[in-house]
Write a structure and sequence with these properties.
InterPro entries: ARMC9_CTLH-like_dom, WDR91. The protein has 220 residues and is an all-alpha fold. It has a domain of 134 residues. Helices cover 61% and strands 3% of the residues. A two-stranded antiparallel ribbon has the order 1-2. The longest helix has 24 residues. It is elongated. The N terminus is likely disordered.
Length: 220
Amino acid sequence: MYFLCFLEPSHQFLTIVSRWRSRLDGPRASHDQNKYQLRGSGEELLQMASAVERTDEHVREYLIYRGFTNTLKHLDNEMKADKEKGFRVDKIIEQLQQFVQSFDLCSLKEYWLYLDRRLFCRLEDVYKSTVNKLRTSLYRYYVINTIQRGNLEKTQEFFQKQALELQGQPEWRDWFVLPFLPSPEQNPAFLPYFSRQWADTFLVSLHNFLSVLFQCVHIL
């Protein structure tokens, strides 16, 4: 089992988090040209992810060579269920997007809760507001997807299931009317969230945050 321990946050990390806070404060965040760009040096993160991936492949090749087909099946199943995705940020983002696209709110919440227990809870209090803003954006990303794909049932389900958690949060106060608007994508208050720019900016911000986060941890 992997145990993650945080190193002392760097000044660069503080600067990056500050920038992301301003981006997540509103829908008019600057666009990052649709690319997942790593802030600072991503060499350590890429080396770690690459090493895990190479090790996985070597183990699979060995099992195939030895004819251990049952063990190989178990390994493949374990790898699919690996929530940390070998410390590959792109795979974590991909998993979150899969839950969003399949309208699997329960799994989306559970996966984010896992990341919170495994990673985010180890952050100092100064970073918690950034994590909360990312979670808020993730939920909004989910809601907007249900509307864009015409699944009003899932839109209503979200607000029913999340009512107790979200009603007391100012950033969600205006959102409970969303399922009842005839054309929410044309409403000035929600129009920016239906843009590709907002979705891309959120995904880039989440990707960059996780990337820097993994650079600030080491594996024991």
